[in-house]
């Protein structure tokens, strides 16, 4: 197995190759050199850049959409327009090209109002403005480019992951993310500070509605347009009083939900990915454990602004001695024989257990075992579920 560019975590199982994953020619050359049977494109930037197109044109089986379908994540405006054309429930919105247009559009919305950068923003290009002044500041900070101004939706967020082979779409798993940097969902937006799976708030009934009203119409629309979607479609949902509404799409396994979902997948995961890549999804079964997984992100101080770099990380092996615990690497690197931080979100500490409470307790035991002086994390991951279950919020 190869990973490009990889990190010290995945290096335990894969050979890491130092290439730019968004460089289409380099990725195709690597696949040809190693005679790859399957190429899985993880990050959003290579998908939007058309790496999937280049690999498919070269004859490779690919898990991940082509560039046209990847616009579901690459352009918030594209997705909002697709929703409008297909009666997919989502927030009311206005697309703008310049800052003065966006400020003028604010007059049509009540406060709070949501300001979104149109393009890729690593999960951080969204501002929920609590005043007109805050909204205008967010518009100014975004620069004079495309934005989406949309109404604020009331409800609870949840994530639905579907796997799609161009025509068939089936549910893989549900999860709930925690976007804000601070406890109690305070502070700036991040790429996600923790998650748990499954998300009980997304009941079987709501899950089916989300598939019928949101995911399947999206897949059908792209197929009808001649740009079929193949890969994993991650729908960020708001569960409103009227039912689930789409907040946004990701076109890949997004962090930190990915780390909460992966340990629950049973059976041959590579076979499932291959079936998606070759249009044979109806030939395989999705097998998912009934256990609960909880993931806590350990980030470098300064994230999501300018994170501290180079901090020493120890005791990961001790954390993984706790039953059911896996420590996924994100922003890590090797400095000689030492592991150091290199990025904002550094580790994703995941625990699986027979109940939410046990998984959460194990995850925090593992976090506490890790020695990373420059790191920080939230202590309230899963707080909504804690309240529903009536358990102590203290970990």
Question: What's a concise summary of this model?
Answer:
The chain is built from 13 helices and 24 strands. With 395 residues, it is an alpha+beta fold.
Query: What's the number of structural domains?
Result: 4
What would CATH call the homologous superfamily of the largest domain? Answer: ATP-grasp fold, B domain
- Poorly predicted runs are none
The first-to-last residue Cα distance is: 37 Å
Average pLDDT confidence is 95
The gross shape turns out to be globular
Rounded to an integer, what's the Rg over CA atoms?
21 Å
CATH topology of the largest domain: D-amino Acid Aminotransferase, Chain A, domain 1
CATH architecture of the largest domain: 2-Layer Sandwich
* Class by SSE composition: alpha+beta
Salient structural properties:
395 residues; nine-stranded antiparallel sheet; Rossmann fold; alpha+beta; Dna Ligase, domain 1; D-amino Acid Aminotransferase, Chain A, domain 1
Description of the structure:
The protein has four domains: 28-63, Rossmann fold, CATH 3.40.50; 92-151, 2-Layer Sandwich (Dna Ligase, domain 1), CATH 3.30.1490.20; 155-288, ATP-grasp fold, B domain (D-amino Acid Aminotransferase, Chain A, domain 1); 292-389, Alpha-Beta Complex (Glycinamide Ribonucleotide Synthetase, Chain A, domain 4). 30% of the residues lie in helices and 29% in strands. It has 13 helices and 24 strands. The chain has helices at residues 24-34, 44-48, 51-57, 67-74, 76-85, 99-105, 132-142, 204-224, 257-261, 269-277, 316-319, 356-369, 383-389, and strands spanning 2-3, 15-16, 39-40, 62-63, 93-96, 113-117, 126-129, 147-151, 156-165, 169-177, 180-182, 186-189, 194-197, 230-240, 243-250, 265-266, 287-288, 292-300, 312-313, 325-329, 332-335, 338-341, 345-353, 375-376. The strands form seven sheets. Strands 9, 10, 13, 14, 15, 18, 20, 23 and 24 form a nine-stranded antiparallel beta sheet that branches. A four-stranded antiparallel beta sheet has the order 5-8-6-7, with helices on both faces. Strand 6 and strand 7 form a beta hairpin. Helix 1 (24-34) packs across helix 3. The longest helix is centred in the middle third of the chain and has 21 residues, at 204-224. The chain is globular.
């Amino acid at each position: 197995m190869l990973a490009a560019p990889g990190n010290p975590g995945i290096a335990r199982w894969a050979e890491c190759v130092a290439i730019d994953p968004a460089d289409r020619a380099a990725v195709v050359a690597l696949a040809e050199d190693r005679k790859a049977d399957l190429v899985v494109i993880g990050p959003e930037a290579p998908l939007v850049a058309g790496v999937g197109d280049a690999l498919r044109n070269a004859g490779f089986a690919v898990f991940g959409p082509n560039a046209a379908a990847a616009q579901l994540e690459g352009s918030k405006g594209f997705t909002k327009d697709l929703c409008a054309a297909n009666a997919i429930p989502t927030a009311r919105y206005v697309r703008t090209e310049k800052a003065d247009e966006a400020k003028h559009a604010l007059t049509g919305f009540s406060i709070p109002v949501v300001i979104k950068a149109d393009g890729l923003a690593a999960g951080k290009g969204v501002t929920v403005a609590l005043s007109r002044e805050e909204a205008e500041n967010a518009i100014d900070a975004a620069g004079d480019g495309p934005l989406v101004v949309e109404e604020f939706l009331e409800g609870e967020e949840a994530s639905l992951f579907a796997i799609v082979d161009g025509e068939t779409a089936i549910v893989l798993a549900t999860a709930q993310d925690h976007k804000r940097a601070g406890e109690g969902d305070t502070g700036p937006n991040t790429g996600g500070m923790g998650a748990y799976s499954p998300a009980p708030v997304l009941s079987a009934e709501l899950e089916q509605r989300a598939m019928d009203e949101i995911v399947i119409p999206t897949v059908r629309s792209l197929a009808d347009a001649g740009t079929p979607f193949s890969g994993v479609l991650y729908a960020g949902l708001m569960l409103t009083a009227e039912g689930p509404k789409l907040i946004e799409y990701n076109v890949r396994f997004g962090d930190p939900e990915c780390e909460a979902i992966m340990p629950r997948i049973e059976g041959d995961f590579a076979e499932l990915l291959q079936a998606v890549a070759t249009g044979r999804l109806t030939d395989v079964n999705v097998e998912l454990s009934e256990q609960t997984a909880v993931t806590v992100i350990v980030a470098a101080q300064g994230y999501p602004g300018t994170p501290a770099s180079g901090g020493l990380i120890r005791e990961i092996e001790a954390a993984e001695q706790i039953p059911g615990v896996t420590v996924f690497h994100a922003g890590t690197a090797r400095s000689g024989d030492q592991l150091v931080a290199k990025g904002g979100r550094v580790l994703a500490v995941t625990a699986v257990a027979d109940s939410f409470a046990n998984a959460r307790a194990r995850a925090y035991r593992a976090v506490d075992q890790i020695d990373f002086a420059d790191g920080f994390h939230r202590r309230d991951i899963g707080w909504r579920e804690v309240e529903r279950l009536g358990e102590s919020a203290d970990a």
